[in-house]
Each structure stands twice: as C-alpha cells, then as structure tokens.
Design goal:
about 170 residues, mainly alpha, 6 helices, flat
C-alpha cells in the first residue's frame, strides 16, 4: 500500500525556511514602525527613513533565504533538523547569562566587574575552554574594554562602585 508523504514535511524542518520567515516578520515590523515617523528625503533624512529602508531590505533578504529553502537538499540527502541532535544547553545558558550579568554587575558594581563577569561566564559555555584560558580571556577583554569605553569613548559608567545588596 503506498504511503502518503506530506510535501511540506521536509520544508517545515528547514532552518533556512524558518530563519527567512523570521527575517520577513521582523523586517516588515520594522518597516511598518518606521513609516509612523517622518521619512524625509535622501538629502534630509527624517527619523523614519533608515528604519523603513533597513526593514524592507531585511524582509527582501528573508524572502530570498526562505525561497531557497526547498532547493537546499539534494535527492537522498536527509533533511536538516531545526535543533541539533544533542543540544548544548550549558553553552546556551552561559551565553545568555553573560549579558544579564553585564547589566546587573554594571548597575551595582561598575564597568570592570561587569565586563569581566560577562566575558568569563560567556566563555564558560565553550566546552573546550579551560578555566585558566577563560580567566585570561576575561582579564584581557576587561582591560581593553575599560580602555575603550572609559578612556577613549568616555562612557559615564564608574569603573568600580558598591551599591549595596541586590
């Protein structure tokens, strides 16, 4: 007895299809929001000009990416999965926790602890990273970040402070 296969089954498992669709949604949203502001002209751009143009470009790129999704596999090749076979939950958690730590540490402890905590925790997400290498990376990025943001760009965030309990 012949089995019925859904022609959209492979298409719905494609990462490119979902990525393109998400880009189209975000691009259309940005373009529509940009239209609510004054657009201006090319010589005198208003606040809505750039978001509208970038939203349209993003939507067009999303359409191109989504349209290429059905032709992405060749005959006999297994369809791509949306999630990997064994997701790296620890890596994802560390990478997502880094910016959160930057915000919290920046607010209560200053720029130096914020940069160090963000880089250190994010780098812990790499399973091949050693503790010594992660620490060295965090120290180097902290020194460069302080030099850039505090001394060159003069961002008004104290280097060290104590705002009490969280």
């Amino acid at each position: 007895m012949p089995t019925f296969t859904n022609p959209f089954h492979e298409l719905t498992r494609k990462r490119d299809f979902y990525a393109g669709g998400l880009m189209v949604l975000i691009g259309c949203g940005v373009a529509l929001k940009g239209l609510t502001y004054r657009g201006g002209t090319l010589m005198h751009m208003g606040p809505g000009f750039l978001p509208t143009v970038l939203g349209v470009i993003l939507a067009l790129l999303g359409i191109a990416i989504a349209a290429s999704a059905p032709t992405g596999t060749e005959a006999g090749e297994e369809a791509e999965r949306i999630l990997p076979e064994h997701p790296e939950w620890w890596g994802w958690l560390c990478i997502l926790a880094g910016p959160v730590l930057f915000i919290v540490c920046g607010r209560y402890f200053g720029l130096i602890p914020a940069i160090f905590a963000c880089v250190f925790v994010s780098a812990l997400g790499d399973r091949s990273a050693t503790l010594k290498g992660t620490f060295t990376l965090a120290v180097v990025v902290t020194v460069l970040g302080v030099a850039l943001f505090s001394y060159f760009l003069r961002i008004p965030l104290p280097l060290l402070m104590w705002k009490g309990a969280l």
